[in-house]
């Protein structure tokens, strides 16, 4: 399903949605969010208020 998806690019979402639909499946998109790829991204996440409970629990249990 994910052949011809240009990963880590500005085209990744569009390519992925196209690939999913080409398989006859449907896709729903949630609210846009930033990637968590680097330690600095976790620090940015930690500063946010009202995190989803699982994200908040993970950050708490991992004491970053």
Entry summary:
By secondary structure, the chain is an all-alpha fold.
What does this structure look like?
The chain is mainly alpha-helical and 64 residues long. It has 3 helices and no strands. The radius of gyration is 15 Å and the shape is elongated. The model has no long low-confidence stretch (mean pLDDT 91).
**SS-based class:** mainly alpha
Instruction: State the end-to-end CA separation.
Output: 35 Å
Number of helices: 3
Extended strand count: 0
Instruction: Please summarize the sheet with the most strands.
Output: none
Question: Which short descriptors sum up this protein?
Answer:
64 residues; mainly alpha; 3 helices; 0% strand; elongated
Question: What's the SSE blueprint?
Answer:
Layout: H1 12-22, H2 39-46, H3 53-62
